[in-house]
Automatic annotation (TrEMBL):
Residues 67-423 form the Amidohydrolase-related domain. This is Amidohydrolase family protein. Its cofactor is Zn(2+). GO terms for biological process: guanine catabolic process. Keywords: Hydrolase, Metal-binding, Zinc. InterPro entries: Amidohydro-rel, Metal-dep_hydrolase_composite, Metal_Hydrolase, Metallo-dep_hydrolases. It comes from the Bacteria. It holds the Pfam family Amidohydro_1. GO terms for cellular component: cytosol. GO terms for molecular function: guanine deaminase activity; zinc ion binding.
Length: 466
């Protein structure tokens, strides 16, 4: 028997399959909206007065005065940093990792602590309405088991993988394994958890990624082995995820240190199989449609072009860039390259779990870029970053990311009543006489004003999560 539910509310989504540059034209606003969900799939998204006959007598859930948005996609968040988003005493990236983050991640050695972290991680994701996520994992298999098991129990989507470190330095040793162990444990995780819920990556909520922490945490030998490993599992839909061009403190920052250590022309070369001195090929490329590179703040044009060409996506993390003093990703130049861009919280580099807070800070940092580079992001572009762009980054755009009929029904119900400041802004804010512009102004007010208290209900595949 099919189960049909009609959800009523003010709908915003990006219809079709636009690029970010086409987001404005794809923006769809339905003030008297109805989202019809049948067996977990969207069968109708439109005006509630024009419901299809099959939905006329269906169960109705009335969210009116509230808004229905596609579920948020967090394309870069660190599971073992769930309690470390307020870490003080680190400074910029490499010092912060050593002083604050490696010690925090080492706490997950304790299985009870790891279980607590897994529960908290799912709690925070549901509170924030992040229905899908790419999560940097813990190197400890019991912690990853806890994360996947709890995520399955709660009904969220997840791509994750143990963070691989094969180089000893500073406070990293508890997180480091030998290269053989790194490959063995990663393969073991893929076999255990990739599509574990349905047996088929096309329908699974749970999937696995190969995740070296960053180039500085592994050796050329590890790069070679991971290239071979990735090649052997690509056709199973396994992902690849890491950090790229985040901190460019002259001489001692992540970018300069990486280029000096590997003697490569670009940081991206290390992930592109060209990790030997002079950017000589040493193994297989790790780029592709199921690869997400976090940050990409300080890319050369050739790196952006190569990511665009290979279908690799960027997880844009402006809150983290503010917190760690990493600088600002050049918006116009990055968009112009054609690379897909999505949003990431980067908790605990970022101190917010909520994707709309990331979108709000994206707006602020890009309007503040100097001179001609400065840009006032369109509300539709912000929505793209937090929803459809994320689904594309996960190479699952055909499954979720908007409300096109046939998509799996991942959505959040935003109740402005939960957040008095948002409710007042929506009620009394000045709006244009032009209906189209007024709709964009309301969407902007929403994306800037949503807090966790505004996220009333969260659905994955039509099922309400709690
Ligand atoms: N680069 C390597 N590890 C990390 C991490 O944990 N967070 C961030 N923001 N960047 C990194
Ligand atoms: Zn990160």
């Amino acid at each position: 028997m099919t189960a049909t539910t009609v959800h009523l509310g003010h709908i915003y989504h990006l219809a079709g399959s636009p690029k970010i540059t086409e987001a404005d034209a794809a923006l769809t606003e339905i003030p008297n909206g109805a989202l019809v969900v049948e067996d977990g799939l969207v069968t109708y998204c439109g005006d509630r007065h024009a419901l299809p006959a099959t939905a006329q007598h269906a169960k109705v859930v009335d969210h009116r005065s509230g808004f229905l948005l596609p579920g948020f996609v967090d394309t870069h968040i660190h599971f073992p940093q769930v309690f470390a988003f307020d870490s003080y005493g680190g400074g910029q990236l490499l010092d912060w990792l050593d002083s604050c983050i490696y010690p925090a991640e080492a706490l997950l050695r304790d299985p009870e602590f790891a279980q607590r972290a897994a529960v908290e991680f799912c709690n925070r994701r549901i509170a924030a309405g992040s229905t899908a996520a790419m999560a940097f994992g813990s190197p400890f298999p019991h912690a990853q088991d806890a994360l996947f098991a709890e995520t399955r129990r709660r009904g969220l989507r997840l791509v994750s993988g143990r963070a691989i470190q094969t180089v000893n330095f500073g406070s990293a040793p508890p997180l480091v394994t030998s290269e053989e162990e790194a490959v063995r444990l990663t393969m073991q995780e893929i076999d255990k958890w990739h599509a574990a819920d349905t047996g088929d990556p096309k329908t699974a909520l749970l999937q696995v990624a190969i995740i070296p922490r960053f180039s500085l945490s592994i050796t050329v030998d590890t790069f070679k082995s991971l290239g071979q490993l990735y090649d052997s599992v690509r056709d199973r839909g396994v992902y690849f995820h890491s950090h790229l061009n985040e901190n460019n403190r002259p001489g001692t920052g992540e970018v300069d240190t990486t280029k000096a250590q590997f003697q490569v022309d670009t940081y991206l070369d290390t992930y592109d199989g060209k990790f030997l001195p002079g950017s000589k090929a040493g193994g297989e490329s790790l780029l592709g449609k199921r690869t997400i590179m976090a940050h990409a703040v300080h890319c050369q044009d050739v790196e952006l072009e190569r990511m665009a060409e290979t279908g690799t996506s960027i997880a844009h993390c402006p809150i983290s860039q503010l917190f760690l003093g990493s600088g600002t990703m050049p918006w116009k130049r990055t968009v112009a390259s054609g690379v897909n861009i999505a949003a990431g919280t980067d908790v605990g580099g970022g101190d917010e779990f909520l994707i709309p807070r990331v979108l709000g800070d994206a707006f602020k940092v890009h309007v503040s870029e100097p001179g001609e580079a400065g840009v006032s992001m369109r509300p539709a572009e912000m929505l793209f970053l937090g929803t459809l762009g994320g689904a594309r980054a996960l190479d699952q755009e055909e499954r979720f990311g908007n409300f096109d009929p046939g998509k799996e029904a991942d959505f959040v119900v935003i109740d402005p009543g939960g957040t008095p400041a948002l409710a007042s802004a929506l009620k009394y804010g000045v709006r244009s006489q032009d209906a189209g512009l007024a709709g964009q102004q309301t969407l902007f007010a929403l994306l800037m004003g949503i807090r966790e208290s505004s996220v009333a209900e969260v659905y994955v595949r039509g099922r309400r999560l709690s």
